[in-house]
Specification:
187 residues, alpha+beta, 4 helices
């Protein structure tokens, strides 16, 4: 029974880890005024009838902090890639010079920065909800185990560990969100 309680703790930790990783993945896509190839993650290109990630049909790089360059491996893909970027509606206009596609990252206005910070805070809140849901699920599982013969002190100890874990992950979330906010607000 004690190992089932440990398993319950491990499951909660795994869910909380996933929540933090998901937050970090989502924050990569929030544009902070700096060019990063991750902005183009998720863009699919029609490559000979199959939807293919942009990174698999071209080389994506950042020559400077304000520019993303997309260099397709086949020149006949330029138009298709340009359309895919426009269709993705990421707020950037591709410039095609016949060899590469250039995306200039415009400087963020104060209003846009504040909106991005709100978006980041919302993502942080969603992560905290996920972490608390993991805690709730683990505690419910422990209560079921208690009814099925788990010792009270083991249940209480496991419940306290899960609460400490929850507090730690909430703090991690705050740290990640604060770092992204600072990144966005830095001119």
């Amino acid at each position: 029974m004690e190992e089932e309680a440990r398993f319950c703790e491990d499951m909660a930790k795994e869910k909380m880890d996933k929540a933090i990783r998901h937050l970090e993945d989502e924050l990569i896509h929030v544009r902070a005024g700096k060019a990063t190839p991750a902005i183009l993650d998720g863009i699919q290109v029609d490559y000979y009838g199959a939807l293919t990630p942009l990174s698999q049909v071209s080389n994506v790089g950042t020559p400077d902090a304000k520019t993303i360059v997309v260099q397709p491996w086949e020149k006949n893909m330029l138009q298709t890639i340009e359309k895919a970027i426009l269709y993705a509606n990421i707020g950037l206009t591709p410039m095609n010079n016949g060899e590469i596609i250039r995306l200039n990252i415009p400087p963020l206005t104060e209003e846009r920065r504040k909106n991005l910070v709100k978006q980041v805070k919302q993502l942080g809140e969603n992560t905290k909800v996920s972490i608390r849901n993991a805690r709730r699920d683990a505690n419910e599982e422990l209560k079921k185990m208690l009814k099925n013969g788990l010792a009270e002190d083991i249940e209480k100890e496991a419940s306290e560990k899960i609460q400490h874990m929850t507090d730690d992950y909430i703090k991690k979330t705050d740290v990640v969100v604060a770092a992204k906010e600072k990144d966005i607000m830095t001119v």
